[in-house]
């Protein structure tokens, strides 16, 4: 067994391993490397575990370094899960050992492995985030029947508010970004640059979708989805605060479920949420199953890693200030900060 750094010439066998390994996720795929490098400029290290010339495991890593948010190796940032995928325990152990060696060489503050299952009892693990998934059907009435009576009533009310959904790709990017940037300002969170979403659409043109929800001529909500294998995920969604009386989120997520089912997907991933949050409770209503995430950490000292969440007192003042900024300024400054937030 040996660990090597994959180059572009290894992309084919990297992809072959992913396609043959059921534990591999969407964000293990090679094109995400180019998406992150082109959109954010962060260097990446894609480790292959080889045995007799055969790939036995992979680990994609991205190196983020900033004064505000630390110096870390993450597998992978900006998404929920894409950690170690290995066929054997030896491959897993050697991939982890190679990552720790690299972290020491680069003087990394901490390693963050975003997993769908535990990989090592020697690492600290945070489990306060879940993804929530729901089974899909091509028949909307079938999916409606799986919901509680209260949710069926809510969906039917939302369908009577005069909203309608449209699905597309890059032609809807500007509309999505306007609503998304507004919502992120409201949350006090720096917004990603539009180039990030454009790179995703370029890399995965047949598996990326933008939904926009309209009321008359107004864009009241929007979502960005990516699909892989039998599942599609609502990676980002937002609604305009001035139209909340129309219940656009209820209408939008029902539209997303119907669209995904009719596209042939079997599983809908509502994306990650902090357990117990309002967003988490909203997603639970859609006949979803919580899937725990295991974000594992290593630090040179063994201490806890920097906590990047809105409840950290270190960030509360910045969040309040961000909410007060003009939207145009947040769109200008936000991408420079958001690229540093894993």
Going by CATH, the homologous superfamily of the largest domain would be: Gcn5-related N-acetyltransferase (GNAT)
CATH architecture of the largest domain: 3-Layer(aba) Sandwich
The CATH first-level class of the largest domain comes to: Alpha Beta
Question: What's the rounded overall pLDDT mean?
Answer: 93
- How many independent structural domains? 2
Helix content bin: 25-40%
Cα separation of the termini: 31 Å
* Beta-strand segment tally: 15
- What characteristic shape results from the CA principal axes? globular
Strand content: 25-35%
Indicate the topology:
Layout: E1 2-5, H1 11-20, H2 31-40, E2 44-51, E3 54-66, E4 70-75, E5 85-86, H3 89-105, E6 110-115, E7 124-126, E8 129-135, H4 140-146, H5 149-158, E9 163-168, H6 173-187, H7 194-203, E10 208-215, E11 218-228, E12 231-239, H8 248-262, E13 267-274, H9 278-284, E14 289-292, E15 294-298, H10 313-323, H11 327-338
Parallel strand pairs: 4-6, 12-13
Antiparallel strand pairs: 1-2, 2-3, 3-4, 3-5, 6-15, 7-15, 8-13, 8-14, 9-10, 10-11, 11-12
């Amino acid at each position: 067994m040996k660990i090597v750094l994959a180059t572009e010439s290894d992309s084919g066998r990297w992809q072959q391993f992913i396609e043959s390994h059921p534990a591999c996720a969407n964000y293990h795929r090679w094109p995400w490397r180019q998406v992150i490098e082109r959109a954010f400029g962060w260097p990446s290290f894609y480790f292959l575990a080889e045995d007799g010339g055969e790939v036995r495991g992979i680990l994609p890593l991205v190196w983020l370094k900033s004064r505000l948010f630390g110096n870390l190796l993450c597998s992978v940032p900006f998404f929920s899960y894409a950690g170690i995928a290995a066929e054997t325990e030896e491959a897993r152990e050697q991939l982890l050992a190679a990552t720790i060696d690299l972290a020491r060489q680069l003087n990394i503050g901490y390693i963050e492995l975003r997993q769908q299952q535990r990989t090592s009892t020697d690492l600290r693990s945070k489990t306060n985030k879940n993804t929530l998934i729901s089974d899909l059907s091509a028949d909307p009435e079938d999916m409606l029947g799986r919901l509680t009576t209260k949710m069926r009533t809510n969906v039917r009310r939302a369908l009577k508010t005069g909203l309608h959904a449209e699905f597309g790709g890059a032609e809807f990017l500007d509309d999505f970004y306007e609503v998304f940037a507004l919502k992120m300002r409201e949350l006090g969170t720096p917004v990603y640059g539009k180039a990030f979403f454009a790179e995703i659409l370029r890399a995965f043109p047949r598996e990326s979708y933008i939904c926009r929800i309209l009321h008359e001529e107004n864009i009241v909500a929007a979502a960005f989805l990516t699909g892989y294998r039998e599942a599609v995920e609502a990676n980002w969604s937002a609604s305009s605060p001035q139209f909340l009386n129309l219940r656009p989120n209820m209408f939008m997520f029902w539209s997303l479920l119907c669209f995904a089912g009719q596209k042939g997907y079997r599983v809908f991933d509502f994306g990650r949420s902090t357990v117990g949050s309002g967003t988490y409770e909203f997603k639970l209503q859609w006949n979803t199953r919580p899937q725990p995430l295991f974000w594992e950490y290593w630090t040179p000292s063994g201490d806890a890693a920097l906590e990047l969440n809105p409840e950290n007192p270190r960030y509360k003042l910045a969040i309040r200030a961000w909410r007060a900024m003009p939207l145009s300024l947040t769109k200008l400054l936000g991408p420079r900060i958001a690229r540093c937030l894993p």
